[in-house]
């Protein structure tokens, strides 16, 4: 509630790799809708874009594509599960090179925030993953990471903005995502 007038351009990156599984991908989409229920989208304070990735990344919609919460919810409901390997590097690159551009709805003077939700460590382009996150952070894009069921947090810690303990969240199971909503949203404010 303290966020109602905060302006945010938000890009969410969702891991759709095979290890996620379709039922868990649907839980991620439900979490995203639940998370956005607090966001002031209809008055234009919060703009949302979504990228999903597995072997390749796929832009689902840009920051300037939808102006109402209902339109965004409908778009989220239509996001397909495209399983494959885990190419986090390309998803991060697309986020900072294509999503956060004025042409695609990024507003000057508005905070750029990325939330990455993943259950795995990169297995394609893994040497580029942390450098792509560093490139995004150097453009003042704040990155939050929600890691699910990870035993090794080194990669997600390298992706998240510093200090890591305020920007990286970890849960063991996908059904624990719903409990993260207020924790992550209060961090955004």
UniProtKB/TrEMBL annotation:
Its main location: secreted. It holds the Pfam family VWA. This is VWFA domain-containing protein. It is found in: Secreted. InterPro entries: ECM_Assembly_Org, VWF_A, vWFA_dom_sf. GO terms for cellular component: extracellular region. It comes from the Eukaryota. Residues 9-184 form the VWFA domain. Keywords: Glycoprotein, Repeat, Secreted, Signal.
